Amino acid sequence: xxxxxxxxxxxxxxxxxxxxxxxxxxxxxxxxxxxxxxxxxxxxxxxxxxxxxxxxxxxxxxxxxxxxxxxxxxxxxxxxxxxxxxxxxxxxxxxxxxxxxxxxxxxxxxxxxxxxxxxxxxxxxxxxxxxxxxxxxxxxxxxxxxxxxxxxxxxxxxxxxxxxxxxxxxxxxxxxxxxxxxxxxxxxxxxxxxxxxxxxxxxxxxxxxxxxxxxxxxxxxxxxxxxxxxxxxxxxxxxxxxxxxxxxxxxxx
Amino acid sequence: xxxxxxxxxxxxxxxxxxxxxxxxxxxxxxxxxxxxxxxxxxxxxxxxxxxxxxxxxxxxxxxxxxxxxxxxxxxxxxxxxxxxxxxxxxxxxxxxxxxxxxxxxxxxxxxxxxxxxxxxxxxxxxxxxxxxxxxxxxxxxxxxxxxxxxxxxxxxxxxxxxxxxxxxxxxxxxxxxxxxxxxxxxxxxxxxxxxxxxxxxxxxxxxxxxxxxxxxxxxxxxxxxxxxxxxxxxxxxxxxxxxxxxxxxxxxx
Amino acid sequence: xxxxxxxxxxxxxxxxxxxxxxxxxxxxxxxxxxxxxxxxxxxxxxxxxxxxxxxxxxxxxxxxxxxxxxxxxxxxxxxxxxxxxxxxxxxxxxxxxxxxxxxxxxxxxxxxxxxxxxxxxxxxxxxxxxxxxxxxxxxxxxxxxxxxxxxxxxxxxxxxxxxxxxxxxxxxxxxxxxxxxxxxxxxxxxxxxxxxxxxxxxxxxxxxxxxxxxxxxxxxxxxxxxxxxxxxxxxxxxxxxxxxxxxxxxxxx
Amino acid sequence: xxxxxxxxxxxxxxxxxxxxxxxxxxxxxxxxxxxxxxxxxxxxxxxxxxxxxxxxxxxxxxxxxxxxxxxxxxxxxxxxxxxxxxxxxxxxxxxxxxxxxxxxxxxxxxxxxxxxxxxxxxxxxxxxxxxxxxxxxxxxxxxxxxxxxxxxxxxxxxxxxxxxxxxxxxxxxxxxxxxxxxxxxxxxxxxxxxxxxxxxxxxxxxxxxxxxxxxxxxxxxxxxxxxxxxxxxxxxxxxxxxxxxxxxxxxxx
Amino acid sequence: xxxxxxxxxxxxxxxxxxxxxxxxxxxxxxxxxxxxxxxxxxxxxxxxxxxxxxxxxxxxxxxxxxxxxxxxxxxxxxxxxxxxxxxxxxxxxxxxxxxxxxxxxxxxxxxxxxxxxxxxxxxxxxxxxxxxxxxxxxxxxxxxxxxxxxxxxxxxxxxxxxxxxxxxxxxxxxxxxxxxxxxxxxxxxxxxxxxxxxxxxxxxxxxxxxxxxxxxxxxxxxxxxxxxxxxxxxxxxxxxxxxxxxxxxxxxx
Amino acid sequence: xxxxxxxxxxxxxxxxxxxxxxxxxxxxxxxxxxxxxxxxxxxxxxxxxxxxxxxxxxxxxxxxxxxxxxxxxxxxxxxxxxxxxxxxxxxxxxxxxxxxxxxxxxxxxxxxxxxxxxxxxxxxxxxxxxxxxxxxxxxxxxxxxxxxxxxxxxxxxxxxxxxxxxxxxxxxxxxxxxxxxxxxxxxxxxxxxxxxxxxxxxxxxxxxxxxxxxxxxxxxxxxxxxxxxxxxxxxxxxxxxxxxxxxxxxxxx
Amino acid sequence: xxxxxxxxxxxxxxxxxxxxxxxxxxxxxxxxxxxxxxxxxxxxxxxxxxxxxxxxxxxxxxxxxxxxxxxxxxxxxxxxxxxxxxxxxxxxxxxxxxxxxxxxxxxxxxxxxxxxxxxxxxxxxxxxxxxxxxxxxxxxxxxxxxxxxxxxxxxxxxxxxxxxxxxxxxxxxxxxxxxxxxxxxxxxxxxxxxxxxxxxxxxxxxxxxxxxxxxxxxxxxxxxxxxxxxxxxxxxxxxxxxxxxxxxxxxxx
Amino acid sequence: xxxxxxxxxxxxxxxxxxxxxxxxxxxxxxxxxxxxxxxxxxxxxxxxxxxxxxxxxxxxxxxxxxxxxxxxxxxxxxxxxxxxxxxxxxxxxxxxxxxxxxxxxxxxxxxxxxxxxxxxxxxxxxxxxxxxxxxxxxxxxxxxxxxxxxxxxxxxxxxxxxxxxxxxxxxxxxxxxxxxxxxxxxxxxxxxxxxxxxxxxxxxxxxxxxxxxxxxxxxxxxxxxxxxxxxxxxxxxxxxxxxxxxxxxxxxx
Lengths: 253, 253, 253, 253, 253, 253, 253, 253
Known about the structure:
8 copies of one chain form a homooctamer. Chain A is an alpha/beta fold. Chain A has 11 helices and 11 strands. The model of chain A is unreliable at 29-49 (pLDDT under 50).
């Protein structure tokens, strides 16, 4: 897809409508805007096929406002903000149309219903404490145009709770399995389904949990096929990847 | 899918053609065959939609022979054996039609060309030492009916080597990025493509590599979206998952 | 129980049949025999209620022969030897009546059928590679007088295999769950049963398994109640503890 | 025990009093109540033979109130709440009859004396700083119907303090050994007693203690037989398992 | 030394002045006083030859008051309290004659000059940030009757600072080397001196220091002979051990 | 350089203008001033060729004031203070001419423009969250007399952003690569340039980042030549080393 | 430097001597040769200014022969092979003019004296066991045109050995400090010199050395300025970087 | 002690019998002999007061022969060689009078009875597998002139075995406690004695022992006072330090 840009520039050089030094600059540098603290890449949406996302952690409300204003010009709907504190959410809510979920710290500017893929993404959790991470995944996937079904608190120590949802599990296109503690949910779901399972270890637990290391290692060692893992507590990453996979399955017409 | 089985059993009870104690047994137990050392599940192929796979590590050649004979009755082609030693391969080659790849220690019984998905899977490596793991992924994906393109030795310390393949990267359905040492390949590919990237850390390296920990942590912390990770050196798992995702994109007709 | 000994000594002092210096020595030192390389404690059997056990790792066949000869005088049957190499087993087999299991490296001198507890111990494994550790547990429990039921290769990625044994699981007195890789077996069994579950992580696996760390952490973080954990690959410890618990439930008459 | 339910449903189908579709639903799903944040399983008490327990960490006082109200309908006494903050305890104390222990953060709704097993559980600690975890174990065991004897501050660096309790140690049915720092208490007690020892590492200590890792590894490597380990600071788990084992020994009449 | 007690009891039994049941109790239990939260062992001073020490961390001011009152009856001077917070120090200062050092959080009740050993203990630090731990060691050693010389901020990156004290180093009886970061001080001092060096790693540093792990491992791997290591930040332990060694060298007359 | 001092002292002994005991003292001890809490070494500037630096962490504002006053007598300009809190900065600003950068917590007393080396140092970051560490490096290098070019937010997941600066990268004398998360920036820059690359891992990230361990290991395992690593978040160390290397390249005239 | 290539291609398009599709291909792909197992980049020498290097680990003698033949066409002298086994060295010695050092496993094809930089590189080791890694560094630096001075076995536990070389240390341009065990050498040298110090941790040691982790952490936490670290046992990387830095200082004429 | 040398040199300069340049050289360099592979420091014996020791690991028999010949000129008796392989021992035995202990791999050249300190060193082990490390400590201490008492196999899981030696423990000058697995021996001995305890963790064990980490952490966290720790399996270091401490207590006349 970059080649289109390069060929077009080369064409202009050939036609004599562009000098080679300007061409050189055009070929070397992708257009992005320098705000002083972060380079916004308007082309990325096209390159990666997704709405804009702002990683809120470590950014001031003022910085985020600047980024949002820059993004709105070309992306008027469904700008996703992850790890958005309540304080920053209040600040932004006064300036933009913001939907905010306290549990997952997800904010969405100009939220609009969107369904662009035909399959269903299941987001499942082992316990109730895993729900904030799961909601980060679920809301991310919804903003990106997916139908999401939530199966919360279906951990493996009460396997009948999970088995009662066997029909959903059998028909999903992709499943996000969110679990802390021993992280066994991913393996059990991986054994029950024949679709990709994205495992999200959470830092829920204490002691020999070591801030999520226990669930992380469990999931990496899953004996079920079709399971891959993202970073501890990375609900956004799982939701984003689930959407990517779900859109391979064809669009909703 | 289980529900069909359950409803059929219940129907027979209703009809009076099955007593409740036999029904109870049928509902409780899925059919599988007990060889003494491993339970072969003939239904799994249907449930998970894939050919049979034997994990060769820790199994004697004799045990594998028994498993293969049991599987052949219902799965006559493309039985995949991972981590198959050269010694066991010799033993099996005398008894079956075996294709064996020394580098990746992959064996295939009754190998047959198969193309059941329309997309392309790229398998890329950072260095030449990562190739055995990459071949495990690539051969697994091929046996499972996928078209595979290999991009080997395109590590990030010579970024132009990777960039020269930008067209392939742009059009792949799913990419398997195999790398040891610093494991940066997954992030760079993740930034260049808009398809799912399955990262496979390898144990290639020494010192502070700590048997693959370095690459594993790098890949889990990737700042690129769409990247997920499997276990260190788990080429099979990556190839299997890549095939699963590629088949979501529709079948080859 | 020590008090009987102390009171008897004190009585002799009171009666004047024992001088205080001899009494002092008797009170201070328990009787044990010094072989130069290991102190054999003949009283331990009484104190801990079990036959003698020799930890074979790091002992020469000759050293073990000496220990066995010393033990036979007061413990004529069912001397258990763990981690016994094939070489040492050959040496001992020429000198004693030895039953040897190659898989688990368990040796038993003068093996005799014994059933002293009324309950049943289940020993379950996640995969076939976990069987050596499981057999160490099972044979230990059998030598200690327990009825043992083996459920091998019932790992959580094929949950129906485990569920088909729900009746056994429901009626066991204590369950030993042996698993490597992600170690989820303990949690699932813990959720299905209402008896103590002794989890044995194994070093089976590779990569991020880190020689059993993954299964160990999983099992320690189990969200099921009633689960406790022994050292990685410690089948003997699990079998011994299971026997201890099973004997609380009353003797076989 | 599930089989009774299944057979009863199958009987109704056989009798024609139940259609197969309703039967299918009954067989597939166990009854539980959906509160939106946690699924309460009224059948679990029967399956696992214990009163209800609420894991208080990460739950709001309001959420706990809802769960308690739901539980009270079928479990009117001795609902145990672990990791209950003082704030939430105040809130609940205004609405229920709550017994609260500040040290261990244990709350009990409608506490009632209960003795259902004949043996004695010893809960021992190495130091005074381990007492909060020990009390979590002791109170849990008491609520579950056990007689508990506390031996606090009997750490191994003053071995005479522990030895002075040798009579209690000799007659206990099960011992919970709670210790931080070097965690040696479990091994010494394991060598003195012939009953199961449940070791609870605590995070008490500093420096190379690494939040309980030191005690955890010590206990897992115990050279005494009959010792198993639960998670760091998991007093509840130890008390629960101790009760399970103690009840094997027969009921108090 | 215990034997004196035992022989005396046995003598009384022999003489008929003590019945055997009372004797049994006397032999079994060492005398200590139960305050409910900590068992004070008045005999320990004699057994270990040192004044009393209270580990202040995790104890309330009230609890410490109780312990101090109990101790004062037999140990009227120089009661050492480690890890004493400023708040608790204020509380105790109102009730006792307390000397308090804010930097090291050491408190001393009824401090009195004391010199009972003839040698000199050097306490050296790598940097200024290590001084709190060093003072814990130095004050402990002083309270225990030692002459202490402080060499602070003589870290190895300016080796001339350390070398300028070569005369002191050559004549010390024992040296406490306190250092964080790379912890090299212990090795260099170990090479310069021919007396025991007690190394105290500190948690001073950041990043790959990992809370003192870096200095701890360095010190354990010291290539200099005569170096041993105590826990991270354990100034008290080092001062106590230094005093023990210094007193082997003979008393100050 | 020390030899000049030694020879001069020896000359005076030879000349009889110095007695041997005074000479001994002069040879043994380098001159430094003892402030009680830190030994200031006025000779170090000469020995290491750099202005004075105060490591602010763990020092009170008052302590720093004392050190500054001592240093000013011989180093009137550009005293660098790292890890200076805002509170201490306020205190010092009232007493000295202080330039303070909030982001990097760098303070400079009597800042003066200085350019003593001819090459250029590039300081690059992977993301915006790495900027505080990068500024610590950049300001340190500037105070030490270097020309610094900043390339911020050029992380590898958007490789075109980095490639657009290829001309700067090609002509730099030394590059400081600052990155958290997967830390791949150092390898990619190392592959693009032919000058030394100093890699600074940062603690930016979460989960399996483990406070910078992920980036640290990545950078140590870099497959690009010419890359070395400093401690996590050690911007100062990188800036200082970069200056040292840059000055090898010759002075600015 | 790439810009020259790009501008030249663009010039040809402008002149009409090159069509845009050929230009596109030229701009996208750097020339390299595909041997099937490793891509040789003839341009790299120019880009990075160094002779060719082959990482011998994991390559067969035959593969290395192929690579060498390809390289010789444009790089006739001083091809460096690291981690070359004795077996492979024998094979290559029969086919090329090979200089081989058994200790460091370094091989050099067509070795020729070369001195292209004016400064001196010191390579120092803590002990004799570190010499193989040090020789890897020293030989690499020599092949790259540097004067190298070796200071072996000057570890910090005998500081006078190091201090006796103070003159060399004072005049070096860059120092490579190679040490295992506690790795303190780098800090002490860093304090004595005012030039860059490249620290190489080695895996020499045992126990809490953890395969070089101890030295690695020590060196990363060095309190001396100007110290940076490469991977454990990475002598080549240190020698290469030292050469890079030394060449900044101007060429030998 | 160095001052004598310095003063003597200065005196000669003063007297005019030495020129300043020669004096400079004498002052700067301590005399040692360069064998090419290791610098032997004949002065070290005087400085550190001990016979010579050769660390045999990683040295060829030939290298050791050279070192021994050099040492014999000034140290004719009791040269200690640690980690000496059986092969090298055979080689040396043909050339010198060598006493060799297979278990501990200790060799002694020209062994001679020696008793230079009046106290007794106890060397205790937890199990029989710890004896090789313990013998390394015991033989080292004997060669260095100490009386050594061995208490082997007195681990804490059979505490009565240890307690039966209470008289020895009470009268020792210093105790070396050698233990693997949970390493609790050091704490229990530390509580029973009032002399310094040197703890030696061993790598004996398996699984969560992690090559001695478990025992190491236990010993560092010992709650007994007077305990310090050396590296895993470092019997020599413990024996050497024990001798150093024992000699403080005065010489044997």
